[in-house]
Amino acid sequence: MIRQGEAVVTRVGAGLSRAPETMAAGREAGRAAAAAVGGAGVDLAFLFLSAHHLDDAEAAVACVLDELRPRHLVGCVADGVVAGEHELEGGPGAAVWAAMLPAGADISVFHALAIPDETGTVVTGVPPLEEPDVVILLAEPYSFPAASFLARLNGEQPGLPIVGGLAAGAGRPGEGALIVEDRVVTEGAVGVAVTGAPVLTVVSQGCAPIGRDSVITSAEGNVVHELAGRPALMRLQTEIASLTPHERALASRGVLAGLVIDENRREYAPGNYLMRALLGGDEDSGSLAVGETVRVGQTLRFHVRDAATADADLNDALARALPGRSRAAGALLFTCNGRGTQLFPEPDHDATAVARALGSGSVAGFFAAGEIGPVGGRTFVHGYTATLAVFLES
């Protein structure tokens, strides 16, 4: 039996404030989210603040708690915030996301810390993650080893759906801010595991392939010595020489290595590659350094990035994730701080695309210094990517 006030389906609302005064911003964004979600009974809320509000983050938390009375609150201070169809890349901003989840949904909030010991680093504070529908993870990048933590989870719990981002609002070690319930903490990671509410994860890396797939035939660590039996740097130079003038212009801004995650496929689609930066090449040895550990036998294809590709990839990823039978209640969006107007010719690109695809303005999130999301059944920290947790109505 559903008690009065309990949600049968998921309902989501979002609010945004540009107010420069922190208490006013928290109250305005919280009030707008409360109105959008349609009343009391908020189970889970997120508060995202721009760096402008860092010093008074506790005041914003208190105001949002007063306006929403949520069962649980999580959030962070970031480079910029997103809500509805708007992206605030600079200046003051506060975004609030509020959800009423189906009756019986379970929410487990945690604060994880990385503690050094004689064997390396031990992560504490993470509860058992027993087949949740989604885990939202917000990490302070200077104090929490997100990449190695996710690698461990990939090994222990393959397919665990994790989405989130690295929050670097202050841009300096020791000056971050994460929100967990009624507290503001400065290190570690905060997270939420949600069970009993339908959620889809979406990852858009937005890269266009160039050249052909090549098998790594010699490598060590993160250094690729040979591709298909040829020096890796020579292979890259050959691929670039065959490009059109437009493609060559894109390559001049930077080439990425697309590493296939799941080799058990006859053909590789965009979502099968993990994008990593090329860190440099050695003319003498012909080797290339990649921003990820590689192995012999792995398939690599070079990619370039541009606004048109990123736009098409995001819209395609949303279309694939949201079949016609699914109705989205809202979404959490984590977009790279290198996207926005640094990549697209118009402002608000990702927020607008997501809101239109969902048919709802109940979207909120932040500009991240690294985006967390699954590719090929494993979760990674990405760059220049947009990742989402899309909450369905039922």
At a glance:
With 394 residues, the protein is of the alpha+beta class. The protein has seven helices and 27 strands.
Tell me what the structure shows.
The chain is of the alpha+beta class. It folds into two domains: about 10-205 and about 310-390, no CATH class; about 205-305, no CATH class. It is built from seven helices and 27 strands. The protein has helices spanning about 20-35, 55-70, 145-155, 230-240, 245-250, 305-320, 350-360, and strands at about 10-15, 45-50, 70-80, 80-85, 85-90, 95-100, 105-115, 120-125, 135-140, 160-165, 180, 185, 190-195, 200-205, 205-210, 215-220, 225, 230, 255-260, 275-280, 285-290, 300-305, 330-335, 365-370, 370-375, 380, 385-390. The protein has a seven-stranded mixed beta sheet with strand order 8-7-13-9-10-25-26, with helices on one face. The chain has a six-stranded mixed beta sheet with strand order 1-6-2-3-11-12. Helix 1 runs parallel beside helix 2 and helix 6 (about 305-320) runs parallel beside helix 7. The protein is globular, with a radius of gyration of 21 Å. The protein starts with 10 loop residues before the first strand and ends with a strand.
